[in-house]
Amino acid sequence: MPEQQPPALFDLTLTEEQQMMRDTVARFAESEMRERSRTSDEAGHPPEGFYQRALELGFNMVQLPEALGGMGAPRSPVGNMLIAEDLASGDMSLAIGALSSLSFINAVLDQGTQAQQRTWLPRFAEETLHQATVALLESQAGFDPGSMRTTAKRVDQGYELTGTKSMVPLASASEVMLVVAKLEGEGPAAFFVQAGADGMHIERQPYMGLRALSLDTVKLEGVTVPADARLGESFDLQRLIDLGKIGLSALTVGTCQAILDYVKEYCNERVAFGEPITNRQSVAFMIADIAIELEGLRMLTYRAAARAEQGLDFHKQAYQAHLQAADKGMKIGTDGVQLLGGHGFIRDHMVELWYRNLRAIGILSGCAIV
Amino acid sequence: MINLELTPNLEETRKATRGLAEALFRPISRKYDRQEHAYPEELKALGGPRRKRTAEEIREAEELKKLAKAQEKQNEGKIVNGSNLNGVVSVAEMCWGDVGLMLSIPGAGLGNAAISAVATPEQKERFGHLYASMAITEPSAGSDSAGIQATAFLDGDEWVINGEKIFITAGERSDAVVVWATVDKSAGKAAIKSFVVPKDAPGLEFVGLENKLGLRASDTATIRFDNCRVPKDNLLGDPEIKRGGGSFGGVMQTFDNTRPTVAAMAIGVARASLDLTIELLEKEGIKADYAKDVWQASAIQAELYRMETDWEAARLLTMKAAWMSDNKQANSMEASMCKAKAGRVGNYITLRCVELCGAMGYSETELLEKWARDSKILDIFEGTQQIQLLIVARRLLNKSSAELK
After folding, report:
1. CATH number of A16-129: 1.10.540.10, 3.40.50.720, 3.30.2310.20, 3.30.70.20?
2. B294 to chain A: nearest residue by CA?
3. Fewer CB in a 10 Å sphere around the end CB: N or C, chain A?
4. Residue B257: in which H helix or E strand, if any?
5. Which residues are B236's β-sheet partners?
6. Domain A134-229 class?
7. Under CATH, to which class is B130-236 assigned?
8. Strand pairing partners for B160?
9. Is the pTM of this model over 0.90?
10. Of the partner residues A10, A144, A292, the one whose CB lies closest to the CB of residue B81
11. Which tens digit of pLDDT belongs to each residue from B230-257?
């Protein structure tokens, strides 16, 4: 991203365009996501036609260059972060699904060659739904990108990929996915792998939460891809991960905002010992702490995104935002259940769903790339 | 447009105050921790002359005020970075140097904040040059400022004040005290007014100074008022008792601006601890470079990352509250949020840094142990952690103080 002129003010105001997109996405989250969150979780899939309707919000094409059929707005991690936050206030599973292609697009815009952008991106300016995704995570306990086991080696026709990727959003529905692997003798690299590639097996795996989202295990048994399928000229894995951390933090902000709104209303109405339980400090202070930590997390996330957008180094800020999202997000998730008491444990209420979804934040990587 | 970086102007402020803290505060930090009640003479240079302004100076000040007003008008509807943001940035840096010494800068008392917030132009003229401390707390009323027992009654052209005030920061060194007292005990908090009491007022008795856990460079005084008399015009704000707590609310609003300032103090002290801890650990080969995933990092690194993260969240919350204030947005809740977060985080960080640095951290050879003592008060004064949570919770949940006690 080119370095821009640093803004002349410390400022927390959205631009008009951001506010407009925000209003649109918030309406969508309200009408298409929040109400359907529970049924989607139980059913294990989104409402019929959901991804098509999400596509109509237009965020996949806004930042696509005009030459690729898009609207040509400058790449904006801040704008993307706000979309992730607002979608997640509706439902995190559906949000990650809806952002899967955008995550791929952003990675390719960020690090792909012009030729790769021309090959893989114009389809996302169409009105027809095209899915894509990024495959980074692996299932070994204590996984970190440094210990990645998926390998790539140079072969005559290009590269051969071997290994297993986990928790890949919408892999089975994707036309193309970006697979991160360790290139023998060279370090991390990413490769475009098309649907139906020989030697690739995709299987959905059920998880503790995010159940409306197809999180797939992708087995690569000697999958060969052509030489030009290697992303970019040099690959910056940390940058890809960090842009993803900003997205994950934004998803946490949105989810925790939903929790705050929910427990405020519930606890104000819940009467025990003759008065609303929010008349007790033990309850009220827990809610105050949710609000404080949530706002702190929001500021960390905004700063990381704004730095990325300004072309400043943002590794530390993204790291901090995600660390706080994993820690405080889970705390807010568990307090949300606690505040409802036994009712919080029952699937009639939303808080147990948010609890399960938030547990994924400390684990996921490479989805919701902003 | 969203930007949470310091602008070149704010960065300049930061560097200048950091320089001052480094050059002026750090070298005498330990000295005045040890000599608890000694007056830090070195700070006199900072206070400027404490005398009434000349006619010329008053005219110049008026001109400046006019210019500022015109500028404000020009900026109407535009986002600005003003005195509040500048304030929290510079306070944090000064407290990186030494929080007790910062609080001992002559002329910068809490009473001065109250005077500049609510005094009439005529009162500003009379009191503006005074170094004013603030006397709220009593032996039996701390956080519960509505429970104040000190009284004031009007006798002819004078207020007669009776009562005892404790925990008065700069109570010995200041020229005047802004005293909170009730003008009608049966009328509740609406009857609590504040009065400017010069230190030489008849009936003002200086009782003594406290010996404290930390913040030893700053004097903390007890003052008794025994039929202490001040002119009628020394009452700040509206003399009427308005039911519904209107005027008390006005006094309390002083805190919307001062809470982010105290949050900034905690941020400064905690940063000092983090900086030194990181420096000492680096000598042992432990780097806080965020190179590894938190679960692959060492336990010490992970703890440093978590502390720096919480510190950063506290700092940004404080910047937000100050920014809202600069832009005339109601920020009562945000002011309490940043104070709550910074207060607890500051205390946690300074204590943990002592532990991480082991014997060196606990020893008086370094300042880490001092910062860990200094930080505790920052989660207490200007509203304890618990009071901040009460304020936040009442706002969030739309509760009265009768409902959520």
Report:
1. 1.10.540.10
2. A323
3. N
4. helix B246-283
5. B194
6. mainly beta
7. mainly beta
8. B153, B229
9. yes
10. A10
11. 999 999 988 888 765 455 665 666 666 7
